[in-house]
Amino acid sequence: MIQTCQKLSTSTILAILLGYLPLLSAQTTLKPVQPQREEPSHIATNTPEKNLFVLANLSLAQRFLDKQEYDQAIQRFRQAIEADQTNPMSKIGLANAYRKSGSVDSAIKLLLPLANQENHPLAMIEMSRIDHELGKFSSSEDWLKKAESIAAQDSKIGLIIGKVLLSRGELTAAMSRFKQVQSDFPEETQSLNQQASLRFNQSKEAFLEAMKAHQQLQQGKSANPWDLYRKTIALNADVVPALNNLAWHLATTKVEAQRDGDQAVRLSQKAVRLSGGKDPGMIETLAAAQAAAGDFESAIKTANSILNNPKAPHIAEHLKLYQKQTALRE
């Protein structure tokens, strides 16, 4: 309800993928890569020439990614893989390019062997990104936890995870990661914490605007709090009332074009989890969302869990609807 690059080290490649190209240029002068070098089979194994070839292609690929020129980035990552098929970073970079270009299945095909068989934390982080974008939030969280446990002493991985969380609006968790690695990355974590603090403040403003618009709507005035709730969640994904109120609307609105049961389930599940799993109002919203998504079995079970709770006085009426395979509409 509403409420010097003799050897291509892992750290060097990781720096590329993190975007630290200025640091690399201070150590290495990259040779220009000629476009016709599509088949680098003549490059001997484990030579400085091969390492530089891979490094140059990864550098160029990252620059193309930054410019959203995904076809060019994919081409460069493929050239790096052809030169050294044992380098997991080239494959992870290619998967990242695939994901950003919309070729999610191709990205997953590259990442799963690295994540499941080689236990590569960066592959797990990329899988977490993909699952989050697909709405598989529980699986996304599991991938991040696994990456963190495998690379618990690697501050670079901790920094990357913090950035991922920040991009999702999970500000408290992101700032916790930044605190853990701030001695290794003092300037960067300071900047990232400032970004998180700014998002906190902006989300508060957006939420206050949303609540004001919601009140106006309840008074019969023309208002649209729903986009403001979305703005709040985009800035700070842990604002429970915004999650709950938007989920209720998406589940119960009579306007079919605005209804989205699946998204309502995702939002309400997160609201229930963040609120400790005991708030009857959040649980009532989850039941309505499950019914809207057509999962009446779960809706009935969820509603029954708060059936005699005085803080959910309408749940018995809602339960009767769910038992008749009917979703709630308000």
The termini sit apart by 11 Å
- The SS-based structural class is mainly alpha
Percentage of residues in DSSP E strands = under 5%
Query: How many beta-strand elements?
Result: 0
C-alpha geometry: elongated
SSE string, helices as H and strands as E = HHHHHHHHHHHHHHHHH
Helix content: 55-70%
Main sheet overview: none
Low-confidence stretches at least 5 residues in length (pLDDT < 50)?
A: 4-44
Mean pLDDT rating: 88
Instruction: Determine Rg (CA atoms, Å).
Output: 24 Å
Query: How many helices does DSSP assign?
Result: 17
Please provide a written account of the structure.
The protein has 330 residues and is mostly helical. It contains 17 helices and no strands. Helix 7 (121-133) packs antiparallel against helix 8, helix 12 crosses helix 13 and helix 14 packs antiparallel against helix 15 (280-292). Mean pLDDT is 88; it is low at 4-44.
